[in-house]
Amino acid sequence: MPEVSINQIYLSLIRTFRYYRDKNSVEKSFAFLADDEEYYKTVVEDHEYLGKRGKFVPRGGMLRSVLDIGSTVLADSFFVCFQDYYQKLLSRSRPNIEKGLILTPHYPCAIDILPSNLKKYRVITSTLPGSLQNVTKAKMSFSIRIYPAGLASLRLGWFLTTEESFRIEDIIEFLVRKRAFIEIDDSELSIGNLTREYAERLIGGLLKKERPPLSWEDTYSIVDIVEATTLTLEQNYYDVFLPLLCLRKQPRAEERTIDNLSRHGDVLLPGTRSVVAYLPSADEADRRKVRRWLRNIIELFSIQKSLINEIETMTISKTFGQLKKEHWLRTLKRGILPPTIKYLFSLWNYTNLHFRSYPLKKESWRVRYQKILVILDKNNDIKKSNDQVMGQLQETVREASEASKKVGGWLKSLFDIVRKSGFLPL
Asked: Which residues contact 95 (CB under 8 A, 6 or more apart)?
């Protein structure tokens, strides 16, 4: 079998972490991050608002909407769909309801750190592992997204080109041990220190001084082989694709029998620690779309997974223990959902996102996402959490009906309308 030659590669490290979203912990100028209604007004309804206001995270960068982009880059259809969804949700009028249902949005703010005209950087190529040192070009991009659910995602992207060949073991060494140094504004930082530095800057800028330590939720890699000798699953699964999927861990059974999510000679393979793409038939724009889609679904999964424990500890008895029945009945009679019940709808919204027809409108991409979920969520915990929240909402309707037939009927009609509207699935 001829030796594999990989000449160009795009590597992404995606790290998610909690930023402890709480009204009392967020700095005043960023209070909208902890207030869903303000988040709708400042981020969802007007995607240029943050850029116009010039909101800067100290020592981090300018905060903006993910749709507030330059003219050369197309808007991410994933978030265009979400913006449309939330705007309809907010404006939808119902009898006896003063305004639309406000849920915690899956719609982030973003900070573009690199590339930037305000930042000068240089990859110190001599610090890269082995064959990765022999690069003719090394570009880097670095950004953070902040989600209202209390999760932030930090992405570090590397585009490397060589006239020789990158060895698989050196790529794995880079992704596992994150061996490299970068010079930014005359400061020399390792990858680990760089990601921690900017995560701590973000948390330090958004939150008040009394903040908990940084807590990483997960780290995931995207490996996009851009230029190489012809690779096939039949010949290169065990020497190229499987090692890059498992990153020195023993492969799970499902990774040994994994389905290729692409076709026509292209390869797209998801694993528990990374996803590997080899798309020789795709142009640059299509590659960017695929990498963007992969990042989006990894972040979506991370958010859903991070809420599982929260859902497990949130019970109906606790919900109604926090609210005096007379109080929440009076609130419901005015056509307003109490915060705790509204939060149940928000949790249901998040756990249901992977069932929706949007933003993956094409059936082929929904199938791809479901196959990725089988790998990532092997115990089907998100579906179990979704069922748990749905059960709690149904129990809420029953409790309200027992206390007041009129209020219970109204709450049930809202529950049914939201389910049948397409916002939440049947």
From this structure: none
407, 352, 419, 421: which is closest to 97 by C-alpha?
407
Backbone phi, then psi, for 402, in 5-degree steps?
-70, -35
Give the tokens for residue 147: 């989600």
Task: Give the pair of three-digit tokens for residue 370.
Answer: 């479901």
Total-model pTM: 0.88
388 neighbors 340 (Cβ within 8 angstroms): no
Burial class (CB in 10 A: 0-12, 13-18, 19+), 332: buried
Mapped onto helix, strand or coil, the DSSP state of residue 348 is: helix
Tokens of 87: 């705007």
Sorted by where each begins, the domain ranges of the chain are 6-303, 308-420
β-pair partners for 18: 151, 215
Helices (H), 265-338: 284-306, 308-313, 316-322, 325-333
* 34-54 pLDDT, tens digit each: 888 889 888 988 888 888 888
